[in-house]
Write a structure and sequence with these properties.
Elements (H helix, E strand, L loop, with lengths): L1 E3 L7 E3 L16 E7 L2 E2 L5 E2 L3 E8 L2 E7 L13 E5 L7 E5 L7 E11 L5 E12 L8 E7 L6 E8 L4 E10 L6 E9 L11 E7 L7 E3 L13 E7 L2 E6 L2 E6 L5 E7 L10 E7 L6 E7 L2 E6 L5 E7 H9 L5 E4 L5 E3 L7 E11 L1 H5 L8 E4 L6 E4 L2 E9 L2 E9 L10 E6 L8 E5 L12 E6 L5
Antiparallel strand pairs: 1-29, 2-32, 3-35, 4-5, 6-7, 7-8, 8-9, 10-11, 11-12, 12-13, 14-15, 15-16, 16-17, 18-19, 19-20, 20-21, 22-23, 23-24, 24-25, 26-28, 27-28, 28-30, 28-31, 29-30, 31-32, 33-34, 34-35
Amino acid sequence: MKFVSVLLTFSVCLAVVNEADAAPCNLADLAFQRSWSSGSKDAAGNAMNATEIMHLVPHGGKLYAATDQWMESDPTTPKAAAILVLDGPKGRWRVSHQFSTDSLRLASLREVTFATDAKGKAIKPTAILLAGPDSTKGGDGKHAIYSLDDASGRWERMILCNSTETTTTRAIGFHRDSVTGVDMVFAGVSGARKSTAGDASLGVISGVYDPARAGRVQWDGESEIKVPAGERVMGFAEANGKFYCATSRHIYLRHDGTAPRWEEVYFNPKETSPVGIRGLTGVPSPSGRGEVLIFAALTSVHTLDPSNGYKDSLELDVPRFVSKQLGVPVTWVLAAYNRFTPYRAPGSDSAVWLFGFESIYPKRFIELTPKPDLGVFVRDSKEPKLHFAVEARYMIREMVGSEIHYKMGTIADPEGRALIAPRDIVPSPFPNDAALYFGGFDCNGQPSHHTGWISRGEFRGEN
């Protein structure tokens, strides 16, 4: 691994539709400070290590983080995922749950709120935090998901299916069936084998609320839809009351009812499983006709319009946009790792959506620029050698009336450490706190050590 530590702190504002009318760029000019660093210990002396931060999720007035250790290079550091928690903006992160070495990566972390029971009867809304770690081939042959017991702080293990290979729950979704009225949670379980379509235990597994069970969810024993061969379940979203699932190359619509079925509404044959369709989210349509689905595919932001035959529209060519703003070529990006996070800035009437991305500079540009005015993280553990931007960059998608504006912000670490990729961005869950939290890193197959990070971004002038 090589790292050129000359950094460029950068923020820009550009309106996709009408640049002159773009709103102020306060979200692209936050004051950042490190909230958590890998290699630290909590107050109880528990080690907190991560090569990546996968998710940040508010729950019960606290902020939870999902870690992974899949590319940990230090043999003395256990390869085991963990859940971290922060109780307040002035507090210290601590370990909420430490998984065994059978789980290297905590691929999903999601809060769901049940307001109906398994029969569709209304109940007192009950929020549950669910965690989906991977299960390695050398584990106990079971793939599980975990549920937080808020009263005790314990994480209850719930078996989803048998597993004869490394499996992962890459996404968790939630939807109220429009026919039965039942609130349902969905776990997208994928395997490591190139062909998984024939395994009945892999795919989208549904569950309903059951307070008598450990974990409070009753899971179905068979998946509703199988994982296409060589793909992963990447995300879930609701739009116009309909429920959708994205795999690496497909988007499916669920037809609700006692015998639900799934229909393919989008296929991208050029996408690959390591990348895949990411960030699937329902957002208001600029046309004013209901909602559209927004997602990242093939380095760009797309929308899919259900009211227009699921028309696929290119909304933003991210490499082109970033290249223009930086004044240097960017050939490839990986955007919207988990979702487009909705947010409303203090004092603003417009809605925005936030997502992070990583970017690559072309090899020849780096070689011909001996002292580039930017940070470069070189993946040199395997070919091809790639040159990633060190800074953690993120996009702000703002909707003003029918117009869409994009802005870009950057987190540059004050100590010169590589950040590379914000995987998740969330508003602070703490009272009277207008900050945002960012977390991430992407190993990209590079052996790594203490590279996971969480940063806190405050508006200028805020205390």
